[in-house]
Write a structure and sequence with these properties.
By secondary structure, the chain is α/β, with parallel strands linked by helices. The protein contains 13 helices and eight strands. Strands 1-2-4-3-5-6-7-8 form an eight-stranded mixed sheet, sandwiched between helices. The protein is globular and about 75 Å long. The termini are far apart.
């Protein structure tokens, strides 16, 4: 091949890459997500109408993502969790790759029962349960509905508190301004990233545009889901009160989405709860400080197992 042909080939490849990067981001975005899963030792699966990520080995650990997120939020921590647990992380209906059927109840209690029913279909009847933000709210609702099925709770800045101080995000919501958690355009997406992290992770341009487009498509539905959580669901103060399930609570000290003062409230409600407040960490500690969060959870479950064996 002569030099001119090589130059033309290089130019064609560069043009194709630029076209994918700037104009058709979806293929590259899906590649970046696949690399995230690979790093976390997770596989993309679909069963009983839901998309979910699965990997690791050991006892089941069900992981529930937050509002307007998806199961990929647990890829970082799964690097350490997978050697100890079989991870099952669904895209909750209405988010990621799981559709929300028309007529589905949006109340947290009903959504919690829906997850329990899906786990029954999956043959998962007893499990550890973790949740971030909205996922933590759902985890508490599931533990209230079926405490005998939940071995322990891993709560990562759970939502649903009505008596906590307003965070920066909820100040905006309470003042009737645009809800920062509902993404309408790329500016909203980048602003939300700033709210969620002290040290934002690198998000490639194609993935930013892919996630922004997904948020735009579901913005109206997301607003309805948020309103159902905030106005038509039982608060955490009711769901968690005297709940006798062991829990590890982790909260970022610099959380701007849910005020970290909520940690003391949640801990006071549960009968058996250990807490960890991480300095200089935002709303998604399992991403921003993945190793610390994962190792804290592993140590918590191992200490509980030793305690159970010593009293048997």
């Amino acid at each position: 091949m002569d030099s001119l042909a090589i130059l033309l080939l290089i130019a064609a490849l560069l043009s194709t890459a630029a076209l994918l990067w700037w104009v058709f981001p979806t293929p590259l975005a899906r590649l970046f997500l696949a690399l995230e899963r690979l790093q976390g030792g997770l596989r993309s699966r679909r069963r009983h109408g839901w998309h979910f990520l699965e990997g690791g080995r050991g006892e089941p650990l069900v992981l529930l993502h937050g509002f307007n997120a998806d199961a990929h939020h647990f890829c970082q921590s799964s690097r350490w969790l997978g050697a100890h647990f079989r991870i099952i992380a669904p895209d909750l209906p209405g988010f990621g790759g799981s559709d929300l059927p028309e007529g589905t109840s949006l109340r947290i209690e009903d959504r919690a029962q829906e997850i329990l029913d899906w786990l029954d279909q999956m043959g998962v009847h007893e499990f550890f349960l973790g949740g971030s933000s909205m996922g933590g709210y759902l985890s508490l609702a599931m533990a209230r509905l079926a405490p005998d099925r939940v071995r322990a709770l891993w709560l990562l800045a759970p939502g649903g508190l009505h008596t906590a101080r307003f965070s920066a995000v909820f100040e905006e919501v309470s003042e009737g301004r645009h809800n920062p958690l509902v993404v309408r355009n790329r500016s909203d997406f980048l602003r939300l990233i700033d709210y969620c992290f002290v040290r934002p992770p690198w998000i490639p341009g194609p993935l930013q545009r892919f996630l922004t487009a997904r948020g735009q498509r579901t913005a109206v539905q997301a607003g309805q889901l948020f309103d159902a959580m905030r106005h038509h669901s039982e608060p955490v103060e009711t769901l968690a009160k005297d709940l006798n399930v062991p829990a590890l609570l982790i909260w970022g000290q610099s959380d701007q989405v849910l005020h970290p003062d909520g940690a003391a409230i949640v801990k006071s409600l549960l009968t058996d709860c250990e807490s960890l407040i991480l300095p200089s960490v935002g709303h998604l500690p399992m991403i921003e400080n993945a190793r610390t969060c994962a190792e804290a959870w592993i140590a918590f479950t191992e200490s509980r197992a030793r305690k159970s064996m010593s009293t048997a």
